[in-house]
Structures are given as structure tokens and as C-alpha cells.
User: Fold Stomatin-like protein 2, mitochondrial from Ailuropoda melanoleuca.
Amino acid sequence: MLARAARGTGALLLRGSVEASGRAPRRASSGLPRNTVVLFVPQQEAWVVERMGRFHRILEPGLNILIPVLDRIRYVQSLKEIVINVPEQSAVTLDNVTLQIDGVLYLRIMDPYKASYGVEDPEYAVTQLAQTTMRSELGKLSLDKVFRERESLNASIVDAINQAADCWGIRCLRYEIKDIHVPPRVKESMQMQVEAERRKRATVLESEGTRESAINVAEGKKQAQILASEAEKAEQINQAAGEASAVLAKAKAKAEAIRILAAALTQHNGDAAASLTVAEQYVSAFSKLAKDSNTILLPSNPGDVTSMVAQAMGVYGALTKAPVPGAQDSVSSGSSRDVQGSDASLDEEFDRVKLS
Assistant:
């Protein structure tokens, strides 16, 4: 009998729904849909049905049929993402600064059964939980960290809400702080702090620039001195190499001249040529006397060129001849007498020059 009544009522309601061109079923004065036997549940909604005051099932989107009188739609839950404005509230930071802060909460119902029977008003419960969690998290941070660690603060609030709202079938997706209002005096002190920090940075940058400039100047001077010393070293090396080359060239030239002179002296009339050369050098040296200093030493007979040449050739001959055995003592005694005679003549000449 109940089945026939249900079928008849369903047919009547189906005709009514067709005549009404697919309009949604009427809702009761409390805002819940009325049991019209045939119901069309919208997408992203979950209707919780109770049968005789006890949970029966959750209606899926689409066509659903209920038993009149026995079945009743008790709760309607939206499965869409819900945005809730968290009212402004006061909170005290770790350094005892009172802030006025508000936010936005994004949540979604994951389990319609828990959301319906786990808490009386899910949105109100989550809002209150967000406010208390925000106050507790702000109490752990100082004022400066509240502005710097805004993202970590939001993440901490989301984690705390999800841990508490898991038994309600609600999941908090994210929480965003909208506005943070600071007391006027604190705002002035923060502005002064910012200005002082900027001046400090400017001073530090200027000092660093001065230091870098001094370092660059000192480095430039160091490099210049190193390059100058290396250039001087290279110059001295080149000069020494040039002087050594010149000395070597002079020695080679002198050796070659001596070799040529020795070869010439061994030829015919070599002694005469040597006598002529000695006479020319004597005359040249005599002409340069008293040019550099007024004190000079003269032999006893400076005008006798012949005796000077003969004496020079005698010395040359004595050096070139080989020493004879047994005559070394006589030569040494004669040489000593000659040296003593020459020394005596030089002393007499020196006294004569001093008297003049």
C-alpha cells in the first residue's frame, strides 16, 4: 500500500516538475529542501538524509527518490571551496605590542557526515579556531618577525586548524592575513628605525667605498713600484751585459793588438819601431804635465828624450831576454843599484819642485 502511494505521489510530482520546466524543488521555511519523493541534487552538494530521525544516507548529485514521511533531508552541505572572513581582533606579540589583525580563511568540506554531526556550526567553529590560533601564533613572534615571517605564520595557522578540524570533516586549504594595524606610536618608532637603518647603510656603503678606493690606490702604487723596480733591474742587467761585452771586446782588441805588436817586433827593424813608439808616447805624456795638478814629479833630465828611450828599451830588453845562470845575483844587485839611483834622483827632483 505504501509502495502504491509512493508511486502515485512520485508520478504526480514528476508531472509537476515537468510542467514547471525543471525548476528546483521547493525548500521548507528552515531553508532545507522538502521531501517531494523525487529530488534532483545539484552538483557539488551533499544532502544528508535521516530516516525516522536517524542517519540514513547522503544523496549524490542527480536524481534521487525518497520515501515520504519516513525520510527527511536534515543537512545540506556544499562541497565547493568556502571563503570566510575572519573578523578583526587584537593580539599581543612577544615584545608586548598590541596589534589589530584580520584575515581570510579558505576551507572545504571533505566529509559531509562529520561536518553535519561532528560540530553544530562548522563555519563558526573554524572561524573561532582561526582567531584563537592566530593569537597564540602571534604571541610567539616579535613585531619585526610578524612582518618578515608572514608566510610561515599563515602556514602555522593552517596546520593548527587542520589538526583540530579533522574530526569535523573540514580541511583548511590556506589562510591569508589581510591587514595588520599597528598603534600610532609604534608606527612612528618603526619609521624612525627604518630611517636610522637607511642612514646606517648609507654610512657603511660610503666607508666601504672609501676603503675600496684606498685599497685600489695602494695596490696601484704597489704595482707601479714593482714595475719600476723590475724596469730598473732590467736596465742594470742590460747595462752590465753591455759593459761586459764592451770589456770583452776591448780585451779581445787589446790581445789582438799585442799579438800584432809582438809579430811586428820580431821582424827586421822592430827595435827601431819600438823606440819610435816609446819616444812618441813620452812626448805626448810630457805635454800633459801640470794640467790636472800643480804638484808634479819630474826626472833629473826631462828634456833628454834619448836617455829616456834608451832606458825604456833597456827595460824591455831585460824583460825579453832569458835569464843567464849565475848572473842572477849580479842582475839583481845591478837592478837594486839602478833602483836606488833612480829613487835618489826622484827625491832630488821632488825637493827641487817643492823649493820652486
Summary: Confidence is low (pLDDT under 50) at residues 1-29, 324-343. Residues 182-282 form one domain.
